[in-house]
Amino acid sequence: MFLNELTIKQCHDGLMKKDFSSVELTRACLHQIKKQDDKIHSFVLITEKEALEQAKKVDDKIAQNETIKILEGIPAGIKDLLCTKGIRTTACSKILENFIPPYDCTVIKKLKENGFVILGKQNCDEFAMGSSTENSAFGSTKNPYDLERTAGGSSGGSAASVVANECIYSIGTDTGGSIRQPAAFCGMVGLKPTYGRVSRFGITAYASSLEQAGPIIKTVEDAAIVLEAIAGNDKLDSTTSFKNVPNYSANLNKDIKGIKIGLPREFFEQGLDLKIKESIYKALKVFENLGAKIEEINLPMTKYAIASYYIIAKAEASANLARYDGIRYGNSNVKSQNLSDVYFETKTNGFGDEVKRSIMMGTYALSSGYYDAYYLKATKIRTLIKQEYIKAFEKYDAIICPVSPILPFKIGEKIENPLAMYLIDAFTVPINLAGVPSLTVPCGKIKIKEKAKEYIVSDGESLPTAFQIIGKHFDEETILRIGNAYEKTQNKIK
């Protein structure tokens, strides 16, 4: 096994034993990026100098026999939505293509306190608006399983880089599935924490009441490790919780005998690829063998989730993106002395089609005469969805359902049909509306009819699939334990 193929835990153990150095580990990842990222396009910026400098500092500590933290010296990639002091942060938009933040977002600050090594900034849909990374102003990210297919979105670069072993782990954001769906498309683990578990300060805003940062990683154990580092209250984000951050790794290996799992009928009906359904039902058999109790449940408000989500998300996007006027924020090469022309030309040239569509939809939903009919009604539906999940969790410890109704699709296949693209999020957006945590766990690969012409991983004949484990508010501990129990059985089978 090459160094860049290791998990976080394996990297830490190897560093502590002095089997290899942080510089060697970092160089292995950088070599992989140089070798293949021109095909995948996971990164939009490589920070080689900063990465090697930080790795050297960690090696110096190890040489002095100092104890290092578990993430110390381990190279990671960061979605280009998180502000990084002195390092360009564009949100993959032309309007911010030269923006260099004067501060770190809280997640980056916490990671720095844990000694992480930053390899660079990763590609995503512009302002996180998309499900395929095709909306990036800097080009699409390809799926390493099949370079003709999407890696998912909006954190497509973050997911593709991990499965391609260009970094040990990455940090993405999830507004309506943007961690979980690309993790599923790339056969990786992805964790969307409870809303308020991780600070949003310094993360370029799309829909503030929905989004959370979280890891895309190789194992459930690594998810627990990263969450411990980035979670917690932040005085700079009033929506963060004062609840203590548990030691998520401590109870990871406890058995799940007696755990009650709900299986929502609404997620397994028309529209779900039958091969995905079959793979998830095989996984459910594993849970039953581990002693979990599985029962079908009803979540009838699910059918309203897409409509509610997209009204709320677009309304918040409209408000958040108003600041990019070419004067206070955003690039502007406009020569006009007329203020309205400056605004118009800056936004016309700076924003892509999906962002413009979002602003128009959101502004319409918030406008006089339509606010009550659209936005207010959507927020009421959101409350009902949240209440439905709270009620379900009175009886069940977790809920399991698909992540995506379809397998990774070909680049260009759906981009001209926004409605078809929005429907891909049908199984992920209810979780963001409810504010509960969810963990994507891979559950095998599905054979496809044609062999991929070009691929980086697998055999070019199969695509990954996954399920998600949804938990109670602030009960990431339980879903991590359930996911880890399943993952261990798969490792034994291998």
UniProtKB/TrEMBL annotation:
Presence of keyword Protein biosynthesis: yes
Transmembrane segments: none
Gene Ontology biological-process entries: translation
EC number: 6.3.5.7
Originating organism: Candidatus Kuenenbacteria bacterium HGW-Kuenenbacteria-1
Family: Belongs to the amidase family. GatA subfamily.
Domain Amidase: 24-480
One Gene Ontology CC term in the entry: glutamyl-tRNA(Gln) amidotransferase complex
Pfam families, sorted: Amidase
InterPro entries cross-referenced by the UniProt entry: Amidase, Amidase_dom, AS_sf, GatA
Family annotation (Gene3D superfamilies): Amidase signature (AS) domain
Protein name (Swiss-Prot/TrEMBL): Glutamyl-tRNA(Gln) amidotransferase subunit A
Enzyme class, UniProt record, top EC level: ligase
Gene Ontology MF terms in the entry: ATP binding; glutaminyl-tRNA synthase (glutamine-hydrolyzing) activity; transferase activity
Subunit structure: Heterotrimer of A, B and C subunits.
Matches recorded under SUPFAM superfamilies: Amidase signature (AS) enzymes (SSF75304)
Function according to Swiss-Prot or TrEMBL: Allows the formation of correctly charged Gln-tRNA(Gln) through the transamidation of misacylated Glu-tRNA(Gln) in organisms which lack glutaminyl-tRNA synthetase. The reaction takes place in the presence of glutamine and ATP through an activated gamma-phospho-Glu-tRNA(Gln).
Catalytically driven reaction(s): L-glutamyl-tRNA(Gln) + L-glutamine + ATP + H2O = L-glutaminyl-tRNA(Gln) + L-glutamate + ADP + phosphate + H(+)
Active site positions, chain numbering: K79 (charge relay system), S154 (charge relay system), S178 (acyl-ester intermediate)
Keywords: ATP-binding, Ligase, Nucleotide-binding, Protein biosynthesis, Transferase
